[in-house]
Design goal:
mainly alpha
């Protein structure tokens, strides 16, 4: 998983990794305990995410689609949204404000 890769590159990751998802159903499935009749037919990747959440290695958080920064890499966006996402990504690169 990502933590193993980071470990090999000697990049410390304190605590679980937070996965931001814009799909409420996907977040609900990731934290569900046990397998329901609907859940057992889902792709094995979803089961892996659920397993990692149950082990405490991954946290899933719901993010509104309008705030999902990765959208700029996966779909065409209006220019204003694209520029806002770019600014937000730059803010993340700079880290927390110092003062």
């Amino acid at each position: 998983m990502l933590q193993q890769l980071a470990s090999e590159w000697q990049i410390p990751i304190p605590g679980p990794i937070v996965l931001h998802i814009d799909n409420a159903a996907a977040v609900a499935m990731s934290v569900a305990n046990g397998v329901t009749t609907r859940f057992k037919h889902i792709d094995t990747r979803a089961h892996y995410v659920n397993e990692q959440v149950q082990r405490g290695k991954l946290i899933t958080r719901r993010v509104p689609g309008s705030e999902h920064l990765a959208d700029m890499f996966t779909k065409p966006l209006p220019l204003r949204t694209f520029l806002e996402n770019m600014q937000n990504i730059r803010s993340l690169e700079q880290g927390p404000a110092r003062g």
